[in-house]
């Protein structure tokens, strides 16, 4: 799914999806990896018990179809009564070596003989097993939870001792079916229960709003964002992205990056064979190539990028490992709970006065300097300028576009940080409208309260509100604000 945050509509989703979401429709994709119930085939036996096998097949079919109460019980009784008379009396005849040579003799045996006690016990055993499974299914439907060891109690009582291969196979089948019908987490007390495939992101919410000019007029929202699931046709993968435009055409640049960067990453992931041993190296190569290709396409897009550009932070997640690629001062952090609540930074703001960034700019013929007052005192953040001219005044050292700044060392090569998710409770990704006046630790503490209530929408509402109030107090303008909060499994 790709969402354009240029609109100011507030969105809350249970989970990401890759197709457009209709109103009121849950974005959770149906999990195709849930274990589906299947019937294991029974091995064939000799002719002596062929009809017993057929009887077991009928019972298995009845179990598979849900064991529908009274009607199915009556049907089972009729089949049992009719067939048991046949194959039990034939077995008795075989035991006495009175082997019938014709259909008439077989019919005579059916009418005249009585079932022996051993096979009657076998019938009783199957009836008990069937009733146990019906009780088990009824209890599961009422609770929707997995009672500890209930399938073990149902299948391993001392009074249920199988006396034939068919009974053994039937019991094994019932064990498998009950384990599949009762989903839950694997544990020491529940070793046979099937574990369902769990997605990393359980819920997320997004909010974006346009800033305000010093004239108190609302400006064009130059932020954009995108959320994709199943990127590169990889199972349990996500791409989450926020771009923050600046300059006259910043909104066009941010929109272009929002549309093209995910497509290019998707194409590169599909065209490269990524093994477990070289996954980290290949992902980093793919992300750098994607940023480079996006830059080249932007230069030929027809958008005037002389003094316009966009920052971008994007997080590529595959299973439980993430790679965060960042240029500029949009930011992504995690809230981790281990021996207390902690902030984990997935990106670093790239400011012109950082030693590495400033060195590159100076080597390319630029200078780094903040605005200054009449007495020469610095005002505001450090900015990038041409050596002999007071342009462009860019407050970051990496971005898409910004043609003039690119001549003096501003680049679009991302810094990439790899992270393995463990004990991480939630993700916060936002444009610098959130981060300008709000502290990382304070943000994590606020979001944690909403995480405990499973209220992602409340979290983004609170953060955007607090950031807006901070801008009003600290500045004459309000920057565009975009915020994504995702709760993690």
Automatic annotation (TrEMBL):
UniProt superkingdom: Eukaryota
Entry GO MF terms: protein serine/threonine phosphatase activity
CC per GO annotation: membrane
SUPFAM superfamilies registered for this protein in UniProt: PP2C-like (SSF81606)
Location in or out of the cell: Membrane
Span of domain PPM-type phosphatase: 203-488
Biased composition (Polar residues): 1-24
Stored CDD domains: PP2Cc
InterPro entries documented for this protein: PP2C, PPM-type-like_dom_sf, PPM-type_phosphatase-like_dom
Predominant location category: membrane
Region: Disordered, residue numbers: 1-31, 65-84
Keywords: Membrane
GO terms under biological process: signal transduction
Name of the protein: PPM-type phosphatase domain-containing protein
């Amino acid at each position: 799914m790709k969402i354009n945050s240029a609109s100011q509509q507030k969105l809350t989703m249970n989970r990401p999806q890759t197709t457009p979401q209709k109103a009121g429709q849950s974005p959770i994709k149906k999990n195709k990896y849930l274990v589906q119930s299947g019937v294991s085939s029974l091995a064939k036996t000799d002719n002596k018990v062929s009809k017993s096998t057929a009887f077991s097949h009928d019972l298995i079919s009845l179990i598979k179809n849900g064991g529908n109460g009274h009607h199915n019980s009556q049907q089972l009784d009729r089949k049992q009564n009719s067939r048991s008379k046949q194959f039990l009396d034939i077995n008795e005849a075989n035991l006495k070596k009175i082997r019938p040579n014709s259909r008439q003799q077989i019919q005579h045996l059916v009418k005249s003989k009585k079932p022996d006690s051993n096979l009657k016990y076998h019938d009783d055993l199957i009836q008990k097993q069937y009733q146990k499974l019906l009780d088990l299914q009824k209890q599961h439907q009422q609770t929707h939870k997995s009672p500890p060891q209930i399938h073990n109690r149902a299948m391993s009582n001392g009074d249920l001792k199988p006396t034939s291969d068919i009974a053994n196979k039937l019991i094994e089948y019932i064990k498998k079916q009950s384990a599949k019908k009762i989903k839950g987490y694997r544990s020491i007390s529940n070793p046979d229960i099937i574990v369902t495939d769990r997605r990393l992101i359980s819920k997320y919410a997004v909010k974006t709003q346009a800033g305000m000019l010093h004239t108190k007029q609302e400006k064009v929202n130059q932020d954009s964002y995108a959320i994709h699931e199943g990127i590169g046709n990889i199972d349990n993968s996500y791409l989450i992205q926020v771009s923050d435009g600046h300059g006259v055409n910043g909104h066009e640049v941010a929109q272009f990056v929002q549309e093209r960067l995910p497509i290019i990453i998707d194409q590169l992931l599909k065209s490269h064979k990524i093994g477990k041993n070289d996954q980290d190296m290949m992902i980093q190569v793919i992300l750098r190539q994607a940023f480079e290709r996006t830059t080249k396409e932007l230069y030929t897009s027809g958008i005037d990028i002389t003094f316009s550009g966009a920052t971008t932070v994007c997080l590529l997640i595959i299973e439980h490992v993430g790679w965060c690629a960042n240029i500029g001062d949009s930011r992504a952090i995690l809230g981790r709970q281990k021996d207390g609540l902690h902030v984990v930074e997935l990106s670093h703001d790239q400011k012109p006065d950082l030693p590495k960034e400033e060195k590159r700019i100076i080597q390319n013929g630029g200078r780094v300097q903040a605005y200054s007052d009449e007495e020469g005192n610095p005002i505001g953040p450090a900015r990038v300028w041409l050596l002999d001219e007071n342009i462009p005044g860019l407050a970051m050292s990496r971005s898409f576009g910004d043609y003039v700044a690119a001549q003096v060392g501003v680049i679009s090569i991302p810094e990439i940080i790899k992270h393995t998710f463990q004990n991480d409770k939630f993700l916060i990704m936002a444009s610098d409208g959130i981060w300008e006046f709000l502290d990382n630790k304070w943000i994590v503490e606020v979001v944690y309260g909403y995480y405990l209530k499973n209220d992602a929408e409340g979290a983004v509402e609170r953060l955007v509100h607090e950031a807006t109030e901070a801008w009003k107090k600290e500045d004459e303008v309000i920057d565009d604000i975009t915020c994504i909060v995702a709760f993690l499994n």
